[in-house]
Amino acid sequence: MKSGQKSLFDRHTAWQRFKLRYFGAKPWSGPGQVGPDQAPPALPNATFFHAGGKAAVLLIHGLTGTPTEMRFLGKTLAEAGFTVYGCQLAGHCGTEEDLVRTHWPDWYASVEQAYAEVRKKHDIVFVAGLSMGSLLSMHLAANHPGEIKGLGLLSTTLRYDGWAIPRLSFLLPLFLHTPLGLRYRFVENYPYGIKDDRLRQRVVANMTSGNSAEAGNLGMTGHSLRQLLSLVELVKREMPAIDTPAMIIHASNDDVCSIWNARYIESHLGGTRELLLLDDSYHMVTVDKQRKEVGRALASFFAARTDPQALVRDHVTAS
């Protein structure tokens, strides 16, 4: 190899190393595709229901996610005697174009609608959410003071600062306020929030095959991220006034959002709170290696705030 060629090769590999260190493997993959202004198609219905006792739990999935990521938790809570409802957020379980058509108030409207239906049947209601679903849970509690008996805040995402997030992610809010940033498509990085190798392979296979109703979307446009950040700022302002008891569950080694997020909630919520840190999970704590521990802890937390008679199964059926 000639010296000039070697120098060029060295410069190229150095640049690749720089990109991986500061921008990640695939922080974005090009312009997002925004569909035409037309009525969105019908999305798959991935909601679920488990009959149980008089006390109910509403479960809320995360951004680009699906109710499927809450199903195991739902079964665990149902086995503990709760009636469980898994809701589906607007624009989710379809394509990225479906998601782009929605804004955070649309996602929250899905939660309000689901909560209203649950309240028709149950006087005792708990709410738990994963990642952005945790934010929506807190916003729901802020809008219904004194009604919700307890919150489960799982892997709450206030900022993307986990170890798998690109080093320059702190510039994301500025980038999203540009026309280019709004249309760029951001793609998840390895390990995709899952420490369990076998489960990760199955989830990634579903995402890459387009099975979003089962595994969610692999990426999202800047539009959706900007909506998330707007919701974060609102919920931060609401936290001191939220006096609903809360259990905060977070992985110590979360690859998406660091333990800082859990500590922030712990110090800013207005009500009583408990913090559980997991040592063998990543971001998706409801499906990862310690999913059973998450379910047991949340069931215990909710049960302690429930009349034992309310956990007696009464064969509630879906309307």
UniProtKB/TrEMBL annotation:
One of its GO terms (molecular function) is hydrolase activity. Signal peptide: none annotated. InterPro entries: AB_hydrolase_fold, Hydrolase_4, MAG_DAG_Lipase. Keywords: Hydrolase. It comes from the Bacteria. Residues 54-289 form the Serine aminopeptidase S33 domain. The keyword Hydrolase applies. Gene3D superfamilies: alpha/beta hydrolase. PANTHER family: PHOSPHOLIPASE-RELATED. This is Alpha/beta hydrolase. It comes from Telmatospirillum siberiense.
